[in-house]
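Dear Dr. L.,

I hope this message finds you well. Following up on our conversation about the binding site, I have prepared a predicted three-dimensional model of the protein together with S-adenosylmethionine. For your records, I am including the exact sequence and ligand specification that went into the calculation, followed by the structure tokens. Please feel free to forward this to your student if that is useful.
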Amino acid sequence: MKYKSLELEKPITYELEGLEIGITSNCNFRCDYCCAYQRNDGNSIGAKEIIPLLEQLPHLKRVRLSGGEVTLKYEDCVEVVSYCAARGVQTQLNSNGSLLSEERIQRLADAGLTTIHISFNFTTAEAFSQYYHIHPSVYQKIRNNIAMFAKTRVDTVLETLLFSETEHHMKEIHDHVYEMGARTHEIQNSIIMNHSGWKAIAARETLKQAVNDLIAHKKEDMTLYFTCMDRFMEELGFQERPGVYFPHCIEGKKQLYHYFGVLPSCHYWQYTQRYFTA
Ligand SMILES: C[S@@+](CC[C@H](N)C(=O)[O-])C[C@H]1O[C@@H](n2cnc3c(N)ncnc32)[C@H](O)[C@@H]1O
Ligand code: SF4
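The resulting structure of the complex is given below.
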């Protein structure tokens, strides 16, 4: 099953095929844009609770584990991935990449992980450190982890948030993604966070230019996914083509988002309907 294939197909039946589980609300980062609403409230769910849930879903095709930072519950991740792999269910971990290591990467690969999804927003240790207030050495560690994952059979997807800090650097970021060995780059449109007051999302014209520039700049063997843009893609003149996709939100149709024990609709929809500033 291709990355985002559930989001790209038009469902004929509405069986529950995808599940996203917020395995922990805790995180070792403090990103100001963070969409994890109840971050660090201490909530988490372990493999012993997750696996019986999955056993009740016969049509399951994909399980995504997110947070918070999933690798804070590393052993639970390995257990869920192994269970899913044995059942032929695909798995994805969404991580900031900072708590991985060669041994941890190898164990996840051996357990049968399908996709690793790592955030990548800055091209220098200085810019990374200045923005996140995290030691610059963590930046190189994340890059090394990405490069190691890209050498395994695990599909390595890097995600860049399109917002004020990245909107004028997308091509450069994309080149770094390529250099580290990843061949899938997801551009996540940033969304205003009403709960925290964060609103440094891209302006309409800047977003339009960044997307068009990136598509024109795309290397032959790269695949681009522009997420949370499908609703205005026609308005801005964006078009899909081989290797360039605008996946739609399938929440409530084929996928549920299980956020630390509750089941809201799409975690982005709950914040705002606005996706760019005027
Ligand atoms: C909440 S994080 C959890 C996984 C992991 N901690 C990470 O940062 O990659 C999941 C994804 O949400 C994205 N995200 C965070 N805040 C966002 C926002 N305000 N709008 C859109 N996406 C956001 C991040 O870029 C990240 O790729
Ligand atoms: S690393 Fe992910 S979960 Fe942690 S604060 Fe940043 S966006 Fe939120």
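In brief: The two ends are 37 Å apart (CA to CA).

With kind regards,
A. P.
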